[in-house]
Design brief:
single chain; 437 residues; alpha/beta; Rossmann fold; 2 domains; eight-stranded mixed beta sheet; five-stranded parallel beta sheet; 15 helices
Length: 437
């Protein structure tokens, strides 16, 4: 009789395995579509019944994922459910749940822990559990391992544990789930071999590392690298502004160097689920080892200060017109965290809106990708996207360009905005009504 490892590897190779995707958001949904598209039966598990109902109707709730692709998946066997007992039917359980920060900027592991606890009664021999959520090094061993073995199963023999960080980039047309290399670390060599077999049919390049800790640290390094470099260029933006220098021109010029330089561009702060959050996962865990990650934390402080900087520049612009921020009507352009997507996770635009409102401004927004301000865990605005017309733009005291969507009419905005605060370098020429922030 083959071992659980060999039997599971064989199932993945023959595509007879059932894939369970737990968490059907920006990470889980593309992964579901990929496995469904190559012939695996996929069961999606999510606590949000509205998401489950939408998917089972063959519709998408993420802008860059078409309803047609979801409908095709449903027609070819995909089903979504809120019933965690369906985990028994799955051979692989891939966890794609949020890992945010709490109000103290410390890791909030409740989504991972609650999800594993909900799955735990249904763990069985021959299960593979793969965590894709960003987290601190040691999570798989400290949180998943004891729960997986609680019922008497042995990791590496009966049940298999893998950490394989997600690398989704919503809205990026140059990469898709299949073409982004997949880092895989296992709790044991058997776990890693089963993890490799899981991802190999779906991903062009699987990158094996020696442990789950290495894979967890790899994800953090990737995003801390971006956070630190964006912090550097954001700090330089403030200095360059004081000196009357266009930082975007500087970055473009430096980018002509064919070696030793990678261009990063400043903005109103960091957004998305990973870049603003991941550095704090490492700084928090490093304290357990008596280490203080000053360099990483400093970049976090710089990036967190950018929304305040944007509000300050907006106040300066209004002041030059003899107006106070209090009582002024401010239109924020773009509330998604980056251009051409509807993803609002950790968007600095929302923080800018809250800061403006707290100082007495009357805040509105326009975003072609977000027609209505969604329900969010920490942010509440009863607003809908404003139409961008000449008359409407002129009715505001200031317009803040926070996210530079391609669908904006930039000439119209420039012509009719009384004061235009540009955080993205779209208006490079010196213009009397443009404030570079």
């Amino acid at each position: 009789m083959p071992s659980h490892k060999d039997a599971l590897v064989g199932k993945f190779e023959s595509r007879d395995a059932v894939i369970g995707i737990v968490g059907l958001g920006y990470v889980g949904l593309p992964l579901m579509l990929r496995y469904n598209g190559i012939g695996f039966r996929v069961i999606g598990i999510d606590i949000d019944s509205s998401k489950v109902d939408t998917l089972n109707q063959g519709k998408s709730y993420i802008e860059h994922i078409s309803g047609e692709s979801v409908s095709n998946a449903v027609e070819t066997g995909f089903e979504a459910t809120t019933d965690f007992s369906r985990a028994k039917e799955c051979d692989a359980l891939i966890l794609c749940v949020p890992t945010p920060l709490n109000k103290y900027r410390e890791p909030d592991m409740s989504f991972v822990i609650n999800t594993v606890d909900a799955l735990k009664p249904y763990f069985r021999s021959g299960h593979l559990l793969s965590l894709e959520s960003t987290t601190y090094p040691g999570t798989t061993e400290e949180e998943l391992l004891p729960r997986a073995e609680e019922g008497g199963l042995k990791a590496g023999e009966d049940i298999f544990l893998v950490y394989s960080p997600e690398r989704e980039d919503p809205g990026n047309p140059n990469f898709e789930t299949r073409t982004i290399p997949k880092v895989v670390g296992g709790h044991t060599e058997n776990c890693r071999a089963v993890g490799e077999a899981l991802y190999k049919p779906a991903i062009d390049q699987v990158v094996l590392v020696s442990s789950t800790k290495v894979a967890e640290m790899t994800k953090l390094l990737e995003n801390i690298h971006r956070a630190v470099n964006i912090g550097l260029v954001n700090e330089m933006k403030v200095v360059a502004d004081r000196m009357g220098i266009d930082i975007f021109e500087v970055v473009d010029a430096a980018a002509t160097k064919p070696f030793g330089f990678t261009p990063y561009y400043p903005g109103p702060g960091l957004g998305g689920h990973c870049i603003p959050i991941d550095p704090f996962y490492l700084t928090w865990k490093a304290r357990e080892y008596g280490l203080h990650t000053r360099f990483i934390e400093l970049s976090g402080e710089v990036n967190q200060a950018m929304p305040d900087y944007v509000v300050s520049k907006t106040m300066d612009g209004l002041n030059d017109q003899g107006k106070a921020l209090k009582g002024s009507k401010i239109l924020v352009l773009g509330i998604a965290y980056k251009k051409n997507v509807d993803d609002m996770r950790e968007s600095p635009s929302v923080e800018i809106m809250e800061l403006l409102e707290a100082k007495g401004a009357v805040v509105a927004y326009s975003d072609p990708h977000v027609p209505h301000f969604p329900k969010m865990r920490e942010h509440h605005f009863e607003l809908s996207s404003e139409p961008l017309t000449a008359e409407n733009l002129a009715s505001f005291d200031a317009v803040v360009l926070a996210t530079d969507h391609d669908r904006f009419d930039y000439e119209l905005i420039l012509e009719h905005a009384p004061i235009l605060v540009d955080t993205r370098g779209k208006y490079r020429a010196t213009l009397k009504n443009v404030i570079k922030a």
